[in-house]
Design goal:
Layout (H helix, E strand, L loop, with lengths): L12 H15 L30 E6 L5 E3 L2 E3 L1 H13 L10 E6 L3 E6 L2 E6 L5 H27 L8 H10 L4 E3 L9
Parallel strand pairs: 1-6, 6-7
Antiparallel strand pairs: 1-2, 2-3, 4-5
Length: 189
């Protein structure tokens, strides 16, 4: 007569596994706030042409397929981009080759000369995602530093510590003006 081999009752093992999986999914954090925060402007109506921007008001940033930077027709390094953008947008000496400024009466801030500068960013189709993010980070860092400097000068606090009205005033004084063209093969006609 053959002996029966002893076995374990595993019928409830699948239920326990499912409950453990559900528990870990509910209590774990999934970071979904990845990406670049940009507010897109509303689309122009069909019968309206895009606004004209003078050449002196445009800071051109090109990134080629080899991840080399060209800004305002000069090769540059990523480490210098933030300072160049700040100098361009700030135009502290009102130089004629840097952007114009328009005096604007900003609630809570008073009269302030707002730059008409626009950063035009264009990438090659072969640009690496890492380089694209580095450029975006430097552009954002330049604007954030300018906002923080103005907040410290005018309100005696860092930009992140301001109230809602002060935030709005600083954002009106130093707007994010980044134009991003569709990636192309740079140099192609």
């Amino acid at each position: 007569m053959a002996r029966k081999t002893p076995g374990l009752n595993t019928s409830s093992m699948s239920d326990i596994s499912f409950l453990l999986l559900a528990f870990f999914l509910m209590v774990s954090n999934i970071n979904t706030d990845m990406g670049i925060a940009r507010r897109l402007p509303p689309p122009l109506p069909d019968n309206v042409d895009p606004p004209y921007v003078k050449h002196r008001n445009i800071f051109t940033v090109l990134v080629n397929k080899d991840d080399r930077l060209l800004y305002n027709n000069e090769y540059g390094r990523i480490s210098d981009l933030k300072d160049r953008v700040k100098e361009f947008l700030g135009n502290p000496d009102n130089l004629p080759n840097l952007p114009e400024k328009t005096p604007v009466d900003i609630p809570g801030l008073g009269m302030y000369e707002v730059s008409k500068g626009v950063i035009s960013l264009r990438n090659d189709r072969g640009t690496s995602y890492d380089m694209y993010l580095q450029v975006q980070n430097e552009l954002t860092a330049a604007i954030n530093e300018m906002r923080d400097e103005l907040a410290t000068t005018r309100f005696g606090k860092h930009y992140s510590d301001l109230n809602k009205e002060q935030h709005k005033a600083i954002e009106m004084a130093i707007p994010v003006a980044i134009s991003e063209a569709e990636p192309t093969k740079i140099g192609a006609k």
